Amino acid sequence: MRRRIHPISMACVAVLSLAACGGGDADPAAYPESDITFVVPFSAGGPTDTVTRLIAEPMAEELGQQIVVQNVEGAGGTVAAGQVAGEDGDGYQVLIHHIGMSTAPALYPDLDFNPLEDFKTVGLITELPMTIVARSDFEPETLEELLAYVEENVDTVTIANAGVGAASQLCGLLIEQAVGVDLTEVPYDGTGPALTDLIGGQVDFMCDQSVNTVAQLQSGEIKGYAVTTPERIDALPDLPTTAEAGLDGVEVASFHGLYVPSETPDEVVEELTAALKVALADQNVIDSFADLGTAPVAEDQVTPEAHTAKLEEQLDLWTPIIEASGVTVG
């Protein structure tokens, strides 16, 4: 049976500066001549919004123009992506998106844009690790014990996520497929309320990005089992990787990158890529990312070519997984 989930769309706008955003026909040689809008597909204060605001200031300084941050929520990020895909390719509307850009085609049968055809990539920013965490009083103490407990209590265990297509839900799907179970999923409107209920004991466990869990793990408010990356992260040195903990094949990180409409001149893309490289070398950005359990990608990944390769790789990875799960939205 295919599970169809109807999304609820909403939008909010958060402005980084007092200036209004600019646009219109662009002269690539003169770009940028006015303010640039970074469109974030999720709410203010979330992981993608946090990453955006950290890089916006040094990028604005390098480009010599203000950067306005616009939060456009709805349908797992597809509302914002569709908005930017339909804009003029002048470099003044820039989308920042995460792993959802690679899962949308499989999740949304009526998607009105193609991630590879309707956008040009600018460069990768960072990959936020996922952590497998549980309420502090949950019985299992290790990942091995968690997996055994899940198998024995499949009808009662609850796994929370931030909604269909969110990195937390995708990570959960990988765990379910690895163990061979179909758990009761509890979707929330974002990772914030999901984590709040996890701390409060209303749900048993979940995957969540390190940006949301580092502080709670360090304080003992929640219990940690593993990080879903090939190597441990500095912010949580005692948390093993999924491979170390005996769960092979469950590696996922929420990659972030910048996108512009496909008609955007290459000269404009080059300016944005150069500014992104400067921002990711900024010490404040490096330190702030470290506090969130992540780091800027290597400089050779801050290119359209590397970004496109990553997007293609992730499309190939997630499409069969999502199709096998039977989840669609619409």
What structural class do you assign from the helix and strand content? Answer: alpha/beta
**Rg, nearest Å:** 20 Å
Range of strand content: 15-25%
Number of extended strands: 11
- The string of secondary-structure elements, in order, is EEHEHEHEHEHEHEHEEHHHE
Q: Helical element count?
A: 10
What can be said about the biggest beta sheet?
Answer: 9 strands, mixed
The coarse overall form would be globular
Oligomer: single chain
> Segments where pLDDT lies below 50 for 5+ residues?
1-24
Taking the alpha carbons of the first and last residues, their distance comes to 15 Å
**What is the average per-residue confidence, as pLDDT, rounded to a whole number?**
89
Amount of helix: 25-40%
